[in-house]
Amino acid sequence: MPSPTPVLRSAAFKSNYGPKYTFQPHVGTITPKSLFRFGVKAGAFGGVALFAVIFLTSGIPKIQDDILKKVPFLKNSYDRSVPASDSPF
Protein backbone atom coordinates (compact mmCIF):
# COMPACT_ATOMS: atom_id res chain seq x y z
CA MET A 1 0.00 0.00 0.00
CA PRO A 2 1.51 3.35 -1.01
CA SER A 3 1.86 5.95 1.70
CA PRO A 4 0.51 9.49 1.19
CA THR A 5 2.96 12.14 0.15
CA PRO A 6 4.25 13.99 3.19
CA VAL A 7 3.50 17.70 3.49
CA LEU A 8 6.66 19.55 2.65
CA ARG A 9 7.54 22.68 4.54
CA SER A 10 8.62 25.54 2.35
CA ALA A 11 12.19 26.03 3.46
CA ALA A 12 13.16 27.76 0.24
CA PHE A 13 14.86 31.12 0.33
CA LYS A 14 12.48 34.10 0.18
CA SER A 15 14.00 37.44 -0.79
CA ASN A 16 13.01 40.61 1.06
CA TYR A 17 13.05 42.45 -2.26
CA GLY A 18 10.58 40.18 -4.05
CA PRO A 19 6.85 40.79 -4.39
CA LYS A 20 4.75 40.44 -1.26
CA TYR A 21 1.60 38.65 -2.26
CA THR A 22 -1.50 39.12 -0.12
CA PHE A 23 -5.14 38.24 -0.58
CA GLN A 24 -7.14 40.97 -2.27
CA PRO A 25 -10.88 40.78 -1.51
CA HIS A 26 -13.10 40.79 -4.58
CA VAL A 27 -16.50 39.84 -5.93
CA GLY A 28 -16.00 38.57 -9.44
CA THR A 29 -13.60 41.13 -10.85
CA ILE A 30 -14.78 44.05 -8.66
CA THR A 31 -12.30 45.04 -5.96
CA PRO A 32 -12.74 47.78 -3.33
CA LYS A 33 -10.27 49.96 -5.22
CA SER A 34 -12.15 49.65 -8.52
CA LEU A 35 -15.48 50.21 -6.74
CA PHE A 36 -14.13 53.42 -5.15
CA ARG A 37 -12.84 54.67 -8.51
CA PHE A 38 -16.18 53.94 -10.15
CA GLY A 39 -18.02 55.74 -7.34
CA VAL A 40 -15.89 58.87 -7.71
CA LYS A 41 -16.39 58.94 -11.48
CA ALA A 42 -20.13 58.29 -11.18
CA GLY A 43 -20.45 61.06 -8.58
CA ALA A 44 -18.63 63.50 -10.83
CA PHE A 45 -20.82 62.68 -13.82
CA GLY A 46 -23.92 62.90 -11.61
CA GLY A 47 -22.90 66.32 -10.34
CA VAL A 48 -22.35 67.62 -13.86
CA ALA A 49 -25.68 66.15 -14.98
CA LEU A 50 -27.49 67.78 -12.04
CA PHE A 51 -25.92 71.15 -12.83
CA ALA A 52 -26.91 70.82 -16.50
CA VAL A 53 -30.51 69.93 -15.66
CA ILE A 54 -30.86 72.85 -13.25
CA PHE A 55 -29.18 75.25 -15.68
CA LEU A 56 -31.35 74.19 -18.64
CA THR A 57 -34.61 74.23 -16.69
CA SER A 58 -33.98 77.37 -14.60
CA GLY A 59 -36.30 79.43 -16.81
CA ILE A 60 -39.36 77.35 -15.90
CA PRO A 61 -41.37 79.20 -13.19
CA LYS A 62 -42.39 76.00 -11.38
CA ILE A 63 -38.74 74.99 -10.94
CA GLN A 64 -37.83 78.51 -9.87
CA ASP A 65 -40.52 78.52 -7.17
CA ASP A 66 -40.11 74.95 -5.93
CA ILE A 67 -36.34 74.50 -6.09
CA LEU A 68 -34.23 77.51 -6.91
CA LYS A 69 -35.86 80.06 -4.59
CA LYS A 70 -35.22 77.74 -1.64
CA VAL A 71 -31.42 77.77 -2.15
CA PRO A 72 -30.09 80.57 0.09
CA PHE A 73 -27.60 82.24 -2.26
CA LEU A 74 -29.86 81.87 -5.34
CA LYS A 75 -32.97 83.25 -3.68
CA ASN A 76 -32.35 86.88 -4.66
CA SER A 77 -31.49 85.99 -8.26
CA TYR A 78 -34.95 84.60 -8.97
CA ASP A 79 -36.99 87.14 -7.01
CA ARG A 80 -39.03 88.95 -9.71
CA SER A 81 -41.10 91.27 -7.55
CA VAL A 82 -42.33 94.35 -9.40
CA PRO A 83 -42.52 97.58 -7.39
CA ALA A 84 -45.99 99.11 -7.05
CA SER A 85 -44.95 102.17 -9.00
CA ASP A 86 -44.13 100.04 -12.07
CA SER A 87 -47.30 97.98 -11.97
CA PRO A 88 -49.79 98.92 -14.72
CA PHE A 89 -52.80 97.98 -12.57
UniProtKB/TrEMBL annotation:
GO terms for cellular component: mitochondrion. Keywords: Membrane, Transmembrane, Transmembrane helix. The chain crosses the membrane at residues 42-60. It comes from the Eukaryota. GO terms for biological process: mitochondrial electron transport, ubiquinol to cytochrome c. Pfam families: QCR10. This is Ubiquinol-cytochrome-c reductase complex subunit-domain-containing protein. It comes from Lasiosphaeria hispida.
